[in-house]
Design brief:
The complex is a heterodimer of chains A (97) and B (414).
Chain A lengths: L5 E5 L4 E5 L5 H7 L17 E6 L2 E3 L7 H5 L2 E3 L3 E3 L3 E4 L8
Parallel strand pairs in A: 1-7
Antiparallel strand pairs in A: 1-2, 3-5, 3-7, 4-6
Chain B lengths: L3 H9 L10 H4 L1 H12 L4 E5 L8 E7 L2 E7 L5 E5 L14 E3 L3 E2 L6 E2 L5 E3 L16 E7 L2 E5 L8 H12 L7 E11 L3 H8 L5 H4 L21 H20 L7 E3 L6 E6 L30 E6 L3 E5 L3 E11 L2 E11 L10 H26 L15 H20 L1
Helix pairs in contact in B: 1-9, 3-9, 5-8, 5-9
The chains are: A alpha+beta (97), B alpha+beta (414).
Amino acid sequence: MSATTFAVTFARAGVTTQCRPDEFILNAGETAGVALPYSCREGACGTCKSKLVSGQVQMNHKGGIRQREIDRGLILICCSHPLSDLVIEEAGARTGS
Amino acid sequence: MITPLELAALTANRRPGYTLPAAFYQSQEVYEQDLRLIFGRHWIFVGTEPEIPEAGDFLTVAIGTDSIIILRDDDEQLRAFHNVCRHRGARLQSARNGVLSNIVCPYHQWTYNLTGELTRCKHMGEGFDRRDFGLKPVHVRSLAGLLYICLSEEPAPGFDEMQAAMEPYLKPHDLLNTKVAHQTELIEHGNWKLTMENNRECYHCTANHPELLVPLLEFGFGYQASPENAQALQNFDDLLAREHVRWEGYGLASRELDLLERVTGFRTVRLPIARAGESQTPDTKVASTRLLGALPRADLGGLSFWTQPNSWHHFMSDHVITFSVLPLAPNRTMLRTTWLVHKDAQEGVDYDMHRLTSVWIATNHQDGALVARAQTGVESPAYQPGPYSPFTEGLVEKIVEWYIGRLGEGLAAS
């Protein structure tokens, strides 16, 4: 069976790219040239916190997000795999430089 | 320029019963000493527990150029830290409040847990010991849900005593089971001491606060007796005595307690409210039909609580209002006002926002204009200290006397 990929749309950048089920959304975005803020890349710091507008993900974070935030539809894209096509409102750049 | 030595002399020579010399209201040097010796060394009222009810909730408070994060950690303990990254000093949180899982500096993502430990930072090398770079803690205490911080290394003495004395007054209103219904931030164009002096008297009320004068009985704030008002004063004293007996029958501590002269100074008394006697609303009836805690009825007057140097509060049967005064500049002061109702009260069902907030929104704006008027006056070359009324401004004298004493002691020790 050939690997399925999912269409991931970064709404602010206006970019749609493909993401494998074993790939992190952050990596797929970077490959597609989307500017995405990050720091720890393991779900601990929360820098890449983004809004999941539609779709489902598998997230394995290390405390960088609270259940209350997850309940509001936020995810950490550095440690989330897609389970479906996604629309993401990605975090903006945090500083001016 | 005023040197600390000159300020110490001004402090020592202050004429009791009179307003302060102009420098106290406008000089940058006095302002800096106020931040250091008054706001830096005493218990400062900054907010309420219902503003940070759950693990991860935080609020930030600015005092002068300082900023403090107050939060509830993963074990639901209250903690406070200086809002300054230990890397290059960046302000960690610029939001007024929100939710945190970690405290991550937006600059280089140094990451602190909610107990203040530096848990992650990249590119700092093998020998780098993160344990040396935790956030600087600040003392934080809750008095029945009112949050106080103390910025000095050794906290000011007397918080435990204030807590023991005040809990019987405050706890029946069950602030921990309230929620914030409304909050306003008003920048007053005056020195913080003018804001506090204005709060400590009601000499100005009859001419300036038509909304507040509906629920408020002016005799509760000091009055010069005369043949014309003798009967009204007697009636008020009788009402106060009668109501204190009635309220204490419900288990509500009500009698005046005045310990304003202490380092952690405070005063409280439960006062009758006019007409229906229930709440500081446009018609003196409760604004929220969902009463606080297990209070037995609506007409319980208002428990007022004042703390040195920067707060006052009114606890009624249906809502609580708290006021936090924080200096921003020699001639600029933040007044943050918070209205709290029962946590299960629903807006539009149990309470009406306009009825809840209108009296004090109007009163705050009137007070802000009075403070600005006083500031422009004391900046005039013609200003000289003037006398407080011994009848209506005794509590103004008490906060000014406290301030002068605390400042003088701080200056002498440094």
